[in-house]
Design goal:
5-stranded antiparallel sheet, globular, 215 residues, mainly beta, 2 helices
Length: 215
């Protein structure tokens, strides 16, 4: 399995393969690691839907925002990571930039990676779940459904290992598409459309808050 720098937040955490909670230091040597901002960006809310196809489904929630974050490593885009988080929190990008987690927030996190060492970056298309290889094509690498408790700790996060994601648009502004995944034996389908969120200045310290920052 390849070893590559990763970054994340509690909105994009708790996958058992550990792509969350990695240090920003690994990003320092890369050509690009998301987009840095000296002031908080006013990224418009993303839109999305989430529905359960199971009659007694319990894992869907009202999507209030979609966070899209992109990491690019290497001068020729040798590695690219795309994080898509559907959440019932508002101003998910504002929380992400401020290194804050919202108590009680629920999220579904989808992570697509491309590590074949070639240009161009991840193209539009449909990608199924697969394990990570050193030089593989784009894949849906991780699926996580979680809810944070009152202290922003994940409550029994669940990891899916089946499904697919379709990127209908991916460009310099953001990404949009659909997905059909299985988490805890429950089939979840939905849509997403969001602009890229700038990365935080660091990932060293996170704060648990009871309300999202103003948009």
């Amino acid at each position: 399995m390849a070893t590559h720098p990763r970054t994340g937040s509690s909105l994009i955490q708790a996958t058992r393969r550990g792509f969350a909670a990695l240090s920003l230091a690994a990003c320092g040597a890369a050509a690009a690691c998301g987009t840095s901002a000296s002031t908080f960006a006013n990224v418009p809310p993303g839109t999305g839907t989430l529905a359960s196809k199971s009659p007694s489904g319990t894992r869907s929630f009202q999507v209030r925002d979609v966070l899209v974050f992109r990491n690019v490593f290497g001068t020729q885009i040798s590695t690219e990571d795309l994080y898509i988080t559907l959440t019932d929190a508002t101003n998910a990008c504002g929380l992400f930039e401020r290194e804050q987690d919202l108590a009680g927030a629920s999220s579904l996190q989808l992570y697509v990676t491309k590590q074949d060492g070639t240009y161009p970056p991840i193209p539009a298309g449909t990608y199924g779940y697969s394990t990570l290889t050193d030089d593989g094509p784009p894949i849906l690498f991780a699926i996580t459904r979680q809810t944070l408790d009152g202290t922003c700790q994940p409550i029994s996060p669940e990891h899916g290992e089946q499904g697919s994601i379709t990127l209908t648009r991916i460009d310099e502004q953001g990404a949009a598409g659909t997905f059909d995944v299985f988490v805890g034996g429950e089939e979840l389908t939905g849509t997403f459309d969001g602009s890229y969120c700038p990365r935080p200045s660091s990932f060293a310290t996170r704060t648990c808050v009871s309300a999202s920052p103003a948009q």
